[in-house]
Amino acid sequence: MALEPTEDSDKIKLGVPQSTDASAVNLLIQNSPPLDTNSLYCNLLQTSHFANTAIVAKLNDQVVGFVSGYIKPEQPDTYFLWQVVVGEQARGRGLAKHMITALFERDNFRDVHWLETTITPDNTASQRLFKSLASDWQASIDVQVFFDKHAHFAGQHESEELYRIGPLQR
Ligand SMILES: CC(C)(COP(=O)(O)OP(=O)(O)OC[C@H]1O[C@@H](n2cnc3c(N)ncnc32)[C@H](O)[C@@H]1OP(=O)(O)O)[C@@H](O)C(=O)NCCC(=O)NCCS
Q: Ranges for the N-acetyltransferase domain (predicted)?
Protein backbone atom coordinates (compact mmCIF):
# COMPACT_ATOMS: atom_id res chain seq x y z
CA MET A 1 0.00 0.00 0.00
CA ALA A 2 1.43 3.37 -1.06
CA LEU A 3 1.56 6.45 1.14
CA GLU A 4 -1.01 9.12 0.40
CA PRO A 5 0.87 11.86 -1.43
CA THR A 6 1.56 14.95 0.66
CA GLU A 7 4.27 17.56 0.25
CA ASP A 8 6.81 15.52 2.24
CA SER A 9 5.58 11.93 1.71
CA ASP A 10 8.42 11.22 -0.73
CA LYS A 11 10.87 12.14 2.04
CA ILE A 12 9.64 9.36 4.36
CA LYS A 13 12.13 6.49 4.21
CA LEU A 14 11.46 3.00 5.52
CA GLY A 15 14.21 0.69 6.69
CA VAL A 16 15.47 -2.00 9.00
CA PRO A 17 16.03 -0.27 12.35
CA GLN A 18 19.43 -0.02 13.96
CA SER A 19 20.20 -0.10 17.65
CA THR A 20 21.10 3.60 17.45
CA ASP A 21 17.40 4.27 16.65
CA ALA A 22 16.23 2.76 19.95
CA SER A 23 16.27 5.92 22.06
CA ALA A 24 14.22 7.85 19.46
CA VAL A 25 11.79 4.91 19.24
CA ASN A 26 11.48 4.89 23.03
CA LEU A 27 10.63 8.60 23.05
CA LEU A 28 8.12 8.25 20.19
CA ILE A 29 6.29 5.52 22.13
CA GLN A 30 6.35 7.59 25.32
CA ASN A 31 4.70 10.41 23.36
CA SER A 32 2.04 8.15 21.81
CA PRO A 33 -0.62 7.17 24.32
CA PRO A 34 -2.28 4.74 24.83
CA LEU A 35 0.79 2.66 23.99
CA ASP A 36 2.53 1.03 26.93
CA THR A 37 6.03 2.44 27.27
CA ASN A 38 8.96 0.07 27.26
CA SER A 39 12.35 0.17 28.84
CA LEU A 40 15.00 1.53 26.51
CA TYR A 41 16.70 -1.84 26.85
CA CYS A 42 13.61 -3.51 25.36
CA ASN A 43 13.73 -1.15 22.37
CA LEU A 44 17.45 -1.90 22.04
CA LEU A 45 16.64 -5.60 21.71
CA GLN A 46 13.86 -4.89 19.18
CA THR A 47 16.25 -2.83 17.06
CA SER A 48 19.10 -5.36 17.26
CA HIS A 49 18.11 -9.03 17.73
CA PHE A 50 14.61 -8.45 16.29
CA ALA A 51 15.52 -5.79 13.71
CA ASN A 52 14.65 -8.02 10.74
CA THR A 53 11.06 -8.25 11.97
CA ALA A 54 10.81 -4.54 12.79
CA ILE A 55 10.60 -1.50 10.55
CA VAL A 56 11.39 2.16 11.10
CA ALA A 57 10.11 5.19 9.18
CA LYS A 58 12.15 8.39 9.11
CA LEU A 59 11.35 11.87 7.89
CA ASN A 60 14.42 14.07 7.53
CA ASP A 61 16.35 11.49 9.60
CA GLN A 62 13.86 11.75 12.49
CA VAL A 63 12.01 8.59 13.57
CA VAL A 64 8.28 9.11 12.81
CA GLY A 65 7.09 5.50 12.74
CA PHE A 66 8.01 2.11 14.08
CA VAL A 67 6.65 -1.43 14.07
CA SER A 68 8.02 -4.15 16.33
CA GLY A 69 7.26 -7.84 16.47
CA TYR A 70 8.58 -11.32 15.85
CA ILE A 71 7.82 -14.50 13.97
CA LYS A 72 6.42 -16.87 16.59
CA PRO A 73 9.08 -19.44 17.52
CA GLU A 74 6.61 -22.37 17.58
CA GLN A 75 4.48 -21.08 14.67
CA PRO A 76 6.73 -19.83 11.87
CA ASP A 77 3.76 -18.99 9.62
CA THR A 78 2.63 -16.30 12.09
CA TYR A 79 4.01 -12.81 12.74
CA PHE A 80 3.15 -11.37 16.13
CA LEU A 81 3.09 -7.59 15.85
CA TRP A 82 3.85 -6.11 19.23
CA GLN A 83 3.52 -2.39 18.68
CA VAL A 84 2.85 -0.01 15.82
CA VAL A 85 3.34 3.69 16.34
CA VAL A 86 3.20 6.72 14.07
CA GLY A 87 4.13 10.17 15.38
CA GLU A 88 1.32 12.70 15.43
CA GLN A 89 2.85 14.74 12.61
CA ALA A 90 2.80 11.74 10.26
CA ARG A 91 -0.62 10.24 11.06
CA GLY A 92 -3.58 9.93 8.73
CA ARG A 93 -1.67 9.40 5.50
CA GLY A 94 -1.41 5.60 5.46
CA LEU A 95 2.03 5.29 7.09
CA ALA A 96 1.04 2.55 9.58
CA LYS A 97 -0.41 0.41 6.77
CA HIS A 98 2.55 1.23 4.53
CA MET A 99 5.06 0.02 7.18
CA ILE A 100 3.19 -3.24 7.87
CA THR A 101 2.75 -3.97 4.17
CA ALA A 102 6.46 -3.32 3.56
CA LEU A 103 7.41 -5.71 6.38
CA PHE A 104 5.35 -8.48 4.82
CA GLU A 105 7.13 -7.96 1.49
CA ARG A 106 10.52 -8.87 2.99
CA ASP A 107 12.18 -12.15 2.03
CA ASN A 108 12.15 -13.35 5.64
CA PHE A 109 8.32 -13.08 5.61
CA ARG A 110 8.01 -15.41 2.60
CA ASP A 111 6.42 -18.18 4.68
CA VAL A 112 4.37 -15.94 6.97
CA HIS A 113 0.63 -16.20 6.28
CA TRP A 114 -0.90 -14.86 9.48
CA LEU A 115 -0.67 -11.60 11.38
CA GLU A 116 -1.47 -11.50 15.08
CA THR A 117 -1.61 -8.48 17.33
CA THR A 118 -3.36 -7.50 20.54
CA ILE A 119 -5.56 -4.45 20.94
CA THR A 120 -7.46 -3.07 23.92
CA PRO A 121 -11.24 -2.71 23.35
CA ASP A 122 -11.01 1.10 23.62
CA ASN A 123 -8.33 1.58 20.93
CA THR A 124 -10.50 2.47 17.95
CA ALA A 125 -7.61 3.75 15.81
CA SER A 126 -5.76 0.47 16.09
CA GLN A 127 -8.91 -1.62 15.47
CA ARG A 128 -9.62 0.42 12.33
CA LEU A 129 -6.05 0.02 11.14
CA PHE A 130 -6.07 -3.79 11.38
CA LYS A 131 -9.61 -4.10 9.96
CA SER A 132 -8.51 -1.99 7.02
CA LEU A 133 -5.42 -4.17 6.50
CA ALA A 134 -7.52 -7.35 6.65
CA SER A 135 -9.90 -5.88 4.11
CA ASP A 136 -7.01 -4.95 1.75
CA TRP A 137 -5.61 -8.45 2.12
CA GLN A 138 -9.08 -10.04 1.73
CA ALA A 139 -8.35 -11.93 4.91
CA SER A 140 -10.60 -12.79 7.83
CA ILE A 141 -10.14 -11.64 11.44
CA ASP A 142 -10.68 -13.76 14.51
CA VAL A 143 -10.83 -11.88 17.85
CA GLN A 144 -10.58 -13.35 21.34
CA VAL A 145 -9.31 -12.24 24.72
CA PHE A 146 -5.62 -13.08 25.06
CA PHE A 147 -4.55 -11.35 28.27
CA ASP A 148 -7.42 -10.69 30.64
CA LYS A 149 -7.75 -7.53 32.78
CA HIS A 150 -8.20 -9.52 35.99
CA ALA A 151 -6.53 -12.89 35.36
CA HIS A 152 -3.37 -11.35 33.83
CA PHE A 153 -3.24 -7.64 34.69
CA ALA A 154 -4.54 -7.74 38.29
CA GLY A 155 -7.19 -5.20 37.25
CA GLN A 156 -4.50 -2.60 36.42
CA HIS A 157 -4.80 -2.67 32.59
CA GLU A 158 -7.58 -3.28 30.09
CA SER A 159 -7.83 -6.75 28.56
CA GLU A 160 -5.71 -7.28 25.45
CA GLU A 161 -7.72 -8.92 22.64
CA LEU A 162 -5.87 -11.05 20.13
CA TYR A 163 -6.63 -10.23 16.48
CA ARG A 164 -5.59 -13.08 14.19
CA ILE A 165 -5.69 -12.02 10.54
CA GLY A 166 -5.27 -14.35 7.58
CA PRO A 167 -4.54 -16.44 5.74
CA LEU A 168 -2.63 -14.03 3.52
CA GLN A 169 -2.45 -15.03 -0.12
CA ARG A 170 1.21 -14.56 -1.07
C1 LIG B 1 -2.87 3.79 15.35
C2 LIG B 1 -1.79 4.50 14.52
C3 LIG B 1 -0.55 3.60 14.44
C4 LIG B 1 -2.35 4.76 13.10
O5 LIG B 1 -1.32 5.32 12.29
P6 LIG B 1 -1.65 6.03 10.89
O7 LIG B 1 -0.40 6.06 10.07
O8 LIG B 1 -2.32 7.34 11.14
O9 LIG B 1 -2.72 5.01 10.27
P10 LIG B 1 -3.07 4.88 8.72
O11 LIG B 1 -3.07 6.25 8.10
O12 LIG B 1 -2.22 3.84 8.08
O13 LIG B 1 -4.60 4.40 8.81
C14 LIG B 1 -4.99 3.06 8.57
C15 LIG B 1 -6.48 2.95 8.75
O16 LIG B 1 -6.83 3.20 10.12
C17 LIG B 1 -7.76 4.28 10.22
N18 LIG B 1 -7.38 5.11 11.37
C19 LIG B 1 -6.15 5.53 11.71
N20 LIG B 1 -6.20 6.33 12.78
C21 LIG B 1 -7.51 6.40 13.13
C22 LIG B 1 -8.21 7.08 14.16
N23 LIG B 1 -7.57 7.84 15.07
N24 LIG B 1 -9.56 6.91 14.24
C25 LIG B 1 -10.23 6.15 13.35
N26 LIG B 1 -9.60 5.48 12.32
C27 LIG B 1 -8.27 5.63 12.22
C28 LIG B 1 -7.59 5.06 8.94
O29 LIG B 1 -8.78 5.76 8.60
C30 LIG B 1 -7.26 3.98 7.93
O31 LIG B 1 -8.45 3.33 7.52
P32 LIG B 1 -8.78 3.19 5.93
O33 LIG B 1 -7.59 2.44 5.35
O34 LIG B 1 -10.04 2.37 5.94
O35 LIG B 1 -8.91 4.56 5.40
C36 LIG B 1 -1.41 5.88 15.15
O37 LIG B 1 -2.59 6.65 15.31
C38 LIG B 1 -0.72 5.74 16.50
O39 LIG B 1 0.50 5.55 16.56
N40 LIG B 1 -1.49 5.84 17.59
C41 LIG B 1 -0.95 5.74 18.95
C42 LIG B 1 -0.38 4.39 19.25
C43 LIG B 1 -1.33 3.22 19.04
O44 LIG B 1 -2.49 3.27 19.46
N45 LIG B 1 -0.81 2.16 18.37
C46 LIG B 1 -1.58 0.95 18.10
C47 LIG B 1 -1.60 -0.02 19.24
S48 LIG B 1 -0.25 -1.16 19.17
A: 12-170
Helix ranges (DSSP H) in 47-169:
95-104, 124-136
Hey, whose CA ends up nearest to atom 3 of ligand 1?
85
Give pLDDT < 50 ranges for the chain.
none
| Rounded distance from Cα 38 to ligand 1 centre (Å) | 20
Residue 17, pLDDT score: 98
**Pocket around ligand 1 at a 6 A CB cut-off:** 32, 34-35, 83-86, 91-97, 123-126, 128-129, 132
Name all domains of the chain by residue range, CATH numbers in brackets: 9-166 (3.40.630.30)
Using DSSP, state whether 146 is helix, strand or coil.
Answer: strand
- How far is Cα 111 from Cα 126, in angstroms, rounded to an integer? 25
